[in-house]
């Protein structure tokens, strides 16, 4: 019987950091994709600017999002274009602490526009720490064959990691 | 080795329907994850709800947290006739006919000692994003799940899959 939940690939950032974590040549044989990320930004740009930014098939054009977030003292909601999916710990947060992020992409190889569900948190031993729920839309009907997990500003710190899983519904 | 994460059933709509129902859900797993790729016909302005085991009584309660891109909202409903499946009270689908991903967890669904809790995450990049917790006040094991919109029908192309997750 085929395995339902399969690790396709994983990336771990080495010494010196990395501008992105990338998955290429993603097979179209699964139904959904799930990416699990643990990440920290090498810089200190604040939660708004330190976050992850996704591209599919080499492009972040035609992306829109809607977000619900909490800061530890307030909640807010915003929307826009581009793909600012997710909170990442940076140099302004507790040392040696990495944010966590899940991104679920159903029907990634289908012929419809691609909708995504993202949940992310950063943690910080202080009064402010961000958590966010994100709904994203990539208005392209092409199958997703590559994913670039970029960063808004700065770079990914050593030990940041991302794992891509394929999920089959039968 | 037993499988930890196993597809139980999947439905892909080839025509619009009033609801999607899964029956005879076997109780051999620990939790169930329902993954939906869903839109409603005619861009209906509606959230999606659920009932289990055919219970249409006022035995559900819901707490919602959602944002529409401008404002945030949290709300509660008690003693109601359904739980929240779409993760918020906002619309599932948009005018361009895009599908919305919904992740719906039924924890400890086959336990016969506890009331049942559910966690839903809903996403619509055109309308909003949110999470909802639902409670079904019954200790019965869950054997069926009915998913339906408050208004309108579930559209062609919608895919809903149940995965069973085993703790050991």
Instruction: Please count the helical segments of chain B.
Output: 0
Largest interface: A-B, 37 and 39 residues
| Major sheet details of chain B | 8 strands, antiparallel
Q: Outline the low-pLDDT stretches of chain A.
A: none
Poorly predicted runs of chain B: none
Cα(first) to Cα(last) distance of chain B is: 10 Å
Q: How far is it from the N-terminal to the C-terminal residue of chain A, by CA? A: 9 Å
- Beta-strand residue fraction of chain A: 35-45%
In terms of quaternary structure, the protein is heterodimer
Strand order of the largest sheet of chain B: 1-12-3-8-9-10-5-6
Number of helices of chain A: 1
Helicity range of chain A: under 10%
Shape of chain A: globular
Rg over alpha carbons of chain B: 15 Å
What gyration radius of chain A follows from the Cα positions, in whole Å? 16 Å
Based on helices, strands and strand pairing, what is the structural class of chain B? Answer: mainly beta
Sheet of most strands of chain A: 8 strands, antiparallel
Instruction: Write down the overall geometry of chain B.
Output: globular
Please characterize this protein's 3D structure.
The complex is a heterodimer of chains A (170) and B (168). Chain A is mostly beta strands. Chain A contains one helix and eleven strands, in the order βββαββββββββ. Chain A has one helix at residues 46-50, and strands at 5-12, 21-23, 32-39, 52-56, 63-70, 75-81, 99-106, 114-121, 131-138, 147-151, 161-167. An eight-stranded antiparallel sheet of chain A has the order 1-11-3-7-8-9-5-6, with no helix packed on it. Chain A has a three-stranded antiparallel sheet with strand order 2-10-4, with no helix packed on it. The longest helix of chain A has 5 residues, at 46-50. The termini of chain A are close together. The model of chain A has no long low-confidence stretch (mean pLDDT 92). By secondary structure, chain B is mainly beta. Chain B has no helices and twelve strands. Chain B has strands at residues 5-12, 20-22, 31-38, 48-52, 60-67, 72-80, 83-84, 100-107, 116-124, 128-136, 145-149, 159-165. Chain B has an eight-stranded antiparallel sheet, with no helix packed on it. Chain B has a four-stranded antiparallel sheet with strand order 2-11-4-7, with no helix packed on it. Chain B starts with a strand and ends with a strand. The model of chain B has no long low-confidence stretch (mean pLDDT 92). The chains are: A mainly beta (170), B mainly beta (168).
